[in-house]
Amino acid sequence: MGLTEEQILSLLEKIANGNSKSLREQALSSLYLEYHRSVRNYIFKTFTQDATVIEEVVQDTFFEVWKQPDRFRGESKFKTWLLGIARHKTIDRLRKNVINHISIEEIEETLPSEDISISDLIHKEQIQQGLKYCLESLFTAGKLSDAHREVLHLAYIQDQDIHEIAQVLNCLESTIKTRLHYARLRIKNCLKKRLMGGIDHGE
């Protein structure tokens, strides 16, 4: 079932005001066990596959929780807040290491408001497999930016909604909708061609 938001708040309270270091460490350990895979997966899929960088960022992220547990006020889901920390820690570390510099830019294209649902095409499990393939092929071909890739990962892999994604990325919900719509157009075409056995060239 996983931890409830109430249990998470209780653990954060113990980290902040526990009577002993052991009690505080146990509380942090519970949060780590619950969320470290999500943080690792997010960094791996969105930013870098460098195992050293990923491990460093995971540790940095949970150390931030250890230092400032009271920063979480329940205004969003804890996972959303945690991924926001991980995102900033990853970008900072990559910039410091001068590797795989992540350029997150606002998307300027004006797109129609009609929403296109990928879920109507194929089963959820097939969607995730197809998304992985299409993300890699479209990204490699230069048809999707880092920003589009990140939004798709948060939406379909991390199962975040528009509001939560906007909080993680610290930008307007309208920007997230625009990025998602543009990316969905590309992904839909890719998935259609994949299902028909064709070769997608990102068009």
Description:
By secondary structure, the protein is mainly α. Helices cover 67% and strands 0% of the residues. The chain contains eight helices and no strands. It has helices spanning 5-17, 21-46, 51-67, 78-97, 124-140, 146-157, 162-169, 173-195. α1 (5-17) packs across α2 (21-46) and α5 runs antiparallel to α6. The N and C termini lie far apart (41 Å). The model is unreliable at 98-125 and 198-203 (pLDDT under 50).
Structure summary:
By secondary structure, the chain is mainly α.
What's the helix and strand layout?
Blueprint: H1 5-17, H2 21-46, H3 51-67, H4 78-97, H5 124-140, H6 146-157, H7 162-169, H8 173-195
Helix pairs in contact: 1-2, 2-3, 2-4, 3-4, 4-7, 5-6, 5-8, 6-8, 7-8
Beta-strand percentage range? under 5%
Helix fraction by DSSP (H/I, runs of at least 4): 55-70%
- What do the pLDDT scores average to? 77
Roughly how many Å is the radius of gyration?
A: 18 Å
Cα distance spanning the termini: 41 Å
Number of helices: 8
Give the low-pLDDT segments: 98-125, 198-203
State the shape. Answer: elongated
Query: Which sheet architecture does the biggest sheet show?
Result: none
> What structural class results from the helix and strand content?
mainly alpha
